[in-house]
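Hi R.,

As promised on Friday, here is the backbone we talked about, encoded as structure tokens. Could you run it through your design pipeline when you get a chance and send me back a sequence?
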């Protein structure tokens, strides 16, 4: 897709200024999808795959872990953008970390299988399961706050902490991209965060975090010592 086409698309989209101060999304999903139809077929297909991996709840609760692993591996081979590869890997690592912290908070030991999740850190996490922050607090500074929230069962603050970390990562990458495909992906992922936040309440935070944990581990959850049948 020509650069001027990305410019036309992105300048047609309303600015997303804030996450937690937003009351509604700046544009409806129907309207957003209509604008995204300006993309080439190849770009639209890539955008769908990135969104599926970053927001896997769109795939439904019955999604299999092996399917997600294979989807991630295929996408990594297809993506030509180093920044998008960085973003997807980072986001998948966050999902795996959140799942691991949740299991640790319930007193469950490390998984015994070699390939228990996806991302680039799952093997490291398994080796460092006994560490309070999985040994990843420098790479993911939000982890100590997440651990504290889990100990207090403060799931709303936990979700806000994770969402803020994602928002900041998107802002970091957004500073490198203005009118290209990466900028389109970043816009969509920002929109998803705002949509999630504006539909939120405290009770839903508990349910959502438990759902995300279950989906993150998928069929591998039953391979963890102490997991319910």
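Update: got your reply. Pasting your designed sequence below so it's all in one thread:
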């Amino acid at each position: 897709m020509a650069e001027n086409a990305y410019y036309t698309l992105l300048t047609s989209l309303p600015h997303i200024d804030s996450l937690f101060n937003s009351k509604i999304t700046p544009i409806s999903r129907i309207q957003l999808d209509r604008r995204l139809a300006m993309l080439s077929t190849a770009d639209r297909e890539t955008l769908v795959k990135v969104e599926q991996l970053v927001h896997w709840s769109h795939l439904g609760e019955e999604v299999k872990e092996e399917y997600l692993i294979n989807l991630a591996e295929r996408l990594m081979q297809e993506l030509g953008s180093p920044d998008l590869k960085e973003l997807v890997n980072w986001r998948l690592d966050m999902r795996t970390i959140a799942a691991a912290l949740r299991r640790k908070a319930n007193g469950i030991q490390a998984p015994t299988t070699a390939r228990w999740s996806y991302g680039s850190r799952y093997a490291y996490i398994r080796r460092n399961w006994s560490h309070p922050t999985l040994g990843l607090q420098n790479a993911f500074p939000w982890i100590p706050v997440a651990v504290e929230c889990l100990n207090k069962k403060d799931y709303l603050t936990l979700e806000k902490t994770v969402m803020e970390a994602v928002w900041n990562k998107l802002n970091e990458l957004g500073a490198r991209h203005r009118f290209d495909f990466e900028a389109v992906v970043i816009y969509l992922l920002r929109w998803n965060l705002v949509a999630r936040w504006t539909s939120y309440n405290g009770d839903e935070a508990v349910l959502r975090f438990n759902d995300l944990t279950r989906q993150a581990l998928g069929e591998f959850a039953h391979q963890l010592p102490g997991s319910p049948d």
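One thing I noticed while checking it: The mean pLDDT is 83.

Thanks again,
M.
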